[in-house]
Design a protein that fits this description.
single chain, 40% helix, 6-stranded parallel β-sheet, 254 residues, elongated
Amino acid sequence: MQQALAKVRTILFDAVGTVMTPEPAVAAVYHAAGQRYGSSLSRAEVARRFSTAFRGAREPQNLTPSSARGNTNHVPQRDPAWTTDEPREREAWRFIVSKVFPDVENAHGALFDDLWQHFATPQNWRSYDEVPSVWQELIDNGFQIGVASNFDKRLLTICRALSPLSNCHNVFWSAQLGARKPDERFFRAIEAHLELPPSQLLLVGDDLDNDYMGARSAGWHALLLVRDGKTVPAQLPTEHVIRGLSALRGLLAP
């Protein structure tokens, strides 16, 4: 694997689940917010509904945009190539909130606004403990690092205020690039910005389809991060899987 990565000089990391995580956890935040607006759902039910709604909002769709913001059954417009922008991302999250809280009237209104702002606030996120030392070592060894995530412009605000992500000069998010991972356009847009070929780029992320498969399909190098004892996908070569970011030290020679 070291030989395969010998040409890599730029390493991009997925954001959520790879280098940063919300604190408190999403289910806890949604549950507390829902209670403030009259929801009687349990935390377990909120977590279950969030997972289902998140998957539903992230599937490509061939739907026309809803003409009314209050249409809570509208799935945000997606095409098969995962086109996106800032309004689409905001509407995707409005859809998610509405689906999580069927017992809150106009959940897509004030409740959505509160949750949107909560996750826009850097103090509600933390970087994983291993990130500062690993990133500094990579920088010291001459690697260029960055973040490449399915996110909206809130990501830049978070990164600029969250150490050590604040030291990262390359922050890319899907709404900025016009397409979401695993769409090839996401990766091509980054290549154009960095003026680098795929062979010199490595993506490290925790999502098999969006991160690993997306990057590999675009001709990039990719490593799948599998945290907390989770099962490694059987189809992956073991050398393409890392259990923590500290494993990069042994794979990437300066």
